[in-house]
Every structure is written in structure tokens, then in C-alpha cells.
TrEMBL record:
Organism in which the protein naturally occurs: Mycolicibacterium aurum (Mycobacterium aurum)
Domain of life: Bacteria
Name recorded for this polypeptide: DUF4440 domain-containing protein
InterPro entries assigned: DUF4440, NTF2-like_dom_sf
Stretches assigned to the DUF4440 domain: 5-109
Gene3D superfamilies named in the record: 3.10.450.50
SUPFAM superfamilies in UniProt: NTF2-like
Length: 119
């Protein structure tokens, strides 16, 4: 399960690097999913899709310190430290991140994503 969900996280980050985050997250987020961002914003699925369509891409990223929290056989949280760099910015964004996934008949869906800035 850890490997499956980590592949999804990498695919999500890669989509944020290549400018296709709106399509990726539009396809993987549950209809009632939300993202809770480090700046305090809580965005529903439609807002995430719209926002990512206008966001500058990340230049690169790293995922470290991965932990899996099993909630049920079909639901789990992937918790990790994510670091993202954007061109033209000196310091990367470093955050404690968690993604809660639920497996359906069609595969994994993202139910909740949360990030907290690490200092």
C-alpha cells in the first residue's frame, strides 16, 4: 500500500512540475475532497483545479520521511516531508504533508490533503 500511494504522490508532484496539476488532481480527487494549505486556505475540488491551472510550476521536489497510517483496508494516510523548489526563489517550501486516500472500485481517490510549513 505504501508503494502504491507513494507512486500517486510522485505523480501528483510531477504534474505540479510539468504544469498538468489541474488535470491530475481533477482526476484523482474525490468530489467532496478538500486541500488544507499551509497559508490557512481550505479549497474544495473545483477551487483546486482552477487554482492549479494558474499556478507556476515547481522546478523540482523531494519526498522524505514517508509514513503510512492505515485507517482501514481501503483507506490510508501517507505522511511525509515534502520540499519543493520554484525557479527564481532562493528558499524551497518545506512542509509536513499528509494525503488521505480511499480505494474505490475505480482505484485510489484523494479525500484530503493537508500541509503545514516546517521551519
Amino acid at each position: 500500500m505504501t508503494d502504491e500511494l507513494l507512486r500517486l504522490e510522485h505523480a501528483g508532484w510531477q504534474s505540479l512540475c510539468d504544469g498538468t496539476g489541474d488535470a491530475f488532481y481533477g482526476g484523482i480527487m474525490a468530489d467532496d475532497a478538500v486541500m488544507v494549505l499551509a497559508n490557512g486556505m481550505v479549497m474544495d475540488r473545483d477551487t483546486v483545479i482552477s487554482s492549479l491551472g494558474q499556478s507556476p510550476p515547481w522546478a523540482r521536489y523531494e519526498i522524505e520521511d514517508v509514513r503510512l497510517v492505515k485507517i482501514s483496508p481501503d483507506t490510508a494516510a501517507l505522511v511525509y516531508t515534502g520540499t519543493g523548489w520554484r525557479d527564481g526563489q532562493d528558499a524551497p517550501f518545506v512542509g509536513a504533508m499528509s494525503s488521505v486516500y480511499h480505494r474505490t472500485g475505480d482505484g485510489w481517490t484523494l479525500a484530503l490533503y493537508q500541509q503545514s510549513a516546517k521551519s
